[in-house]
Amino acid sequence: RSAIRILCTGLPPALPCSRNDRLSTKSELDLSRGKEMDVSSYNRYAWNRQVERSNQWTVPVSPDVIRRARQGDVQIVLTPERIVPQPWLGELPGRRVLCLAGGGGQQGPVLAAAGADVIVLDNSPGQLAQDRMVAHREGLTLRTVLGDMADLKMFEEGQFDLIVHPCSNCFAPDVRPVWREAARVLRPAGELLAGFNNPVYYLFDYWQMERGELRVAYQIPFSDAEDLPPDRREALVNQGEPLEFGHPLEDQIGGQLAAGFLLTDMYEDRWSSGPTRLLSEYIDIFIATRATKVSK
After folding, report:
1. Is the Cβ–Cβ distance between 240 and 49 less than 8 Å?
2. Contact between 92 and 72 (Cβ < 8 Å)
3. DSSP secondary structure string, 114-170?
């Protein structure tokens, strides 16, 4: 599934970025009509577009949020609405924290303000620029790394005490490598805090849901790249919208267990003002888990 390819047509020009952290150029992505492009490169492009459009998940936190974090009131989310419980975060000063696929200037700067030693990894240069902007604005120290959440080869084994992985693996074609890499770079007894979609969401026709109707249309696992009708997939690509994947719970939860994690807590959440608002009237459509790496 990591080799999924899609056809792209007529994409607009990319954001300018720094040399070391730049978005792939048109020639690098080969965006001309009828050419193929891999999903990771496309979603990098798409999330840079979301930054341009001030998507909710690209808007950095306010100075007030940073001020409160410095005072010990640490408020971050893994899912759209519920704040991560304080006991999940524990004592942050001095902890080595990886915000995994967590760019956007939201989780990383808050954790850094609370005293953690933070690295933010994301596939989008635009998202990472938001973290650097907040760090500069607030006088914080954090590091940003451009990379794939399923391939953390730039990090050593056992490098981190805590991984914060907000709801983002819906943009990865295969989620199990994400859990395996998270386990590898965590120290024994290190913790993983993760948010992800309940796959029930991907059963329904998104366009009908937007019109107020819940109509089952797809199976799980689900892939925008493979399962959408060609005209709808092309519409998403032409709009610069990220492509999503609906992973079964066997991969989301069972995948964590198989990677060597012990689940210690969880909660559910909804998004009452977002694209899942209709479905959220009936079921919480997001899940957050707290897991500990089992010592070997």
Report:
1. yes
2. no
3. TT-EEEEEES-HHHHHHHHHHHHHHT---EEEE-BTTB-TTS-TT-EEEEEE-S-GG
**Sign (positive/negative) of CA torsion 182, 183, 188, 191?**
positive
Tell me if 151 sits within 8 A of 176, measured CB to CB. Answer: no
pLDDT digits 0-9 by tens, 121-178: 999 999 999 999 999 999 999 999 999 999 999 999 999 999 999 999 999 999 999 9
How far from 128 is each of 25, 111, 120, 146, 207, CA to CA, in Å? 17, 15, 7, 8, 31
Residue bearing tokens 């995948």: 255
Segment (H or E) for 44: helix 39-52
String of DSSP letters for 253-284? THHHHHTTEEEEEEEEE--TTSTTTTGGGTS-
Tens-digit pLDDT profile for residues 282-294: 999 999 999 999 9
CB atoms within 10 A of CB 62: 10
